[in-house]
Automatic annotation (TrEMBL):
InterPro entries: DCC1-like, DCC_oxidoreductase. This is DUF393 domain-containing protein. It comes from the Bacteria.
């Protein structure tokens, strides 16, 4: 995928999920090193990236962190990796790595399964403000 920005990590997220939108806004606010770019899973590019890395988009209700040319992470591991990249107090989330991934993902899946019920859903993906547009692919 040559058209992706160099030296940036791509966060793929559910563009109609209010919880996911809040997470994206949180990451943008705390991304002091300008590490991340964002793509909705529902977008054409989001679908292309999922196909490229071999993730069946129909079976995933997760955030995905894609580090082009290196690796990708999803569910709880993506959250931990994002926290590490944000640094500071957010890197403390890596303490959850002591838990087995299967257990971490059990809780992640429970929240993901109920995210629309608890946080609501948008009719369409958010449109970034002009100043945030550069963060979205």
């Amino acid at each position: 995928m040559e058209n992706l920005p160099k030296n940036k990590k791509i966060v793929l997220f559910d563009g109609v999920c209010n919880l996911c939108d809040g997470a994206v806004q949180f990451i943008i606010k705390h991304d002091k090193k300008d590490i991340f770019r964002f793509v909705s899973l529902q977008s054409e590019l989001g679908k292309e990236i999922c196909n490229y890395i071999g993730v069946d988009q129909n079976k995933i209700d997760s955030i995905i962190l894609y580090n082009p040319g290196v690796a990708y992470y999803y569910k709880s591991t993506a959250v931990i990796e994002i926290g590490n990249d944000l640094g500071g107090i957010y890197s403390l989330i890596s303490a959850f790595k002591i838990l087995p991934e299967k257990l971490r993902n059990y809780f992640y899946d429970y929240i993901a399964k109920n995210r629309y019920k608890w946080y609501g859903k948008k009719e369409s993906c958010m449109i970034p403000t002009p100043e945030l547009k550069a963060k979205f692919l």
